[in-house]
Amino acid sequence: MSITLRTATRAAVAALALITATPATQAGVSLVQNGSFESNGGMGQMAGGITYATGWTTGASAFNFIGNNTADSAGLRWSYSGLLGNLHAWGPNTPVANGGPVNNGFSSSPDGGYALVGGLNNPTSAVSQTINGLVVGSQYSLSFEWAQSQMTNYSVSTTSGWRASLGGESHSTATPTLAGKGFGAWTAESFTFTATGTTETLSFLPIGAMGAGAAALLDGVSLTQVAAVPEPGTMAMGLIVCGLAGVAARRKARRVAVVA
């Protein structure tokens, strides 16, 4: 290969590497801290000093809880207007004293362990965390598992779901009607967001019918960058590199043939 061709090839390869360099955040790596809610202070309300979920914040009097598949039997500690209590979800292990048991399929999420329980008590409050390391203009996939439940102090039909927000963009799940004392099976959900800043707030707000003991469950939260599709310029540069490599190979083959 001549010095000129060798120099051109190296320059093209360097340019291609620069164009296709991986952004600050890598696709497939979740930016959410404690998306499974396993790091917490135990079961109960995320207010009044009862419990917490590492990385997540909520309102001072929010009716949001950390629970697991014993929320029907052990219940969830809560504090409201100076009152203390214990709420039970309807389920196969709900105590007889609370109207149970009810074989409605209540269970933990496919992610297992703990989950967030968003209560639809007026007013509702979002659970949120700050997301850093975003690339402006890049798309991000938010995925999570969610389900519906109801507390034992009510038995009428109700609705519940989640509104997920990243910065100023929001998307909502469906809010199907749940029969009284029922349980809405865990469902996988995903939304796509476009980052408008390098740091934005990710939040989940329970939505649906206020009161009536409605609750939306959340687990397995993950936010990953969507792999970028190569720009036409990048593809063209790749073709140039391949072309230069091909020219070099042909010249070498001709020289070998002449020598032979």
Please give a structural write-up:
With 260 residues, this protein is α+β, with helices and mostly antiparallel strands. Helix 1 (3-19) runs antiparallel to helix 2. Mean pLDDT is 85; it is low at 11-24, 234-249 and 255-259. It is 17% helix and 33% strand. The radius of gyration is 27 Å and the shape is globular. It has helices at 3-19, 232-259; strands at 44-45, 64-67, 76-80, 83-87, 115-119, 127-131, 139-150, 158-166, 169-172, 177-178, 184-194, 200-208, 214-225. The two termini are 18 Å apart. The longest helix is centred in the last third of the chain and has 28 residues, at 232-259. It has a six-stranded antiparallel sheet with strand order 1-2-5-13-7-11, with no helix packed on it. Strands 6, 8, 9, 10 and 12 form a five-stranded antiparallel sheet that branches. Strands 3-4 form a two-stranded antiparallel ribbon. A hairpin with a 2-residue loop joins strand 8 (158-166) and strand 9. The protein folds into two domains: 3-20 and 230-259; 44-225, Jelly Rolls, CATH 2.60.120. The chain contains two helices and 13 strands; from the N terminus they run αβββββββββββββα.
Portion in beta strands: 25-35%
Report Rg.
Answer: 27 Å
CATH topology of the largest domain: Jelly Rolls
The ordered string of helix (H) and strand (E) elements is HEEEEEEEEEEEEEH
Contiguous helical run count: 2
Q: Looking at the structure, what is the overall shape?
A: globular
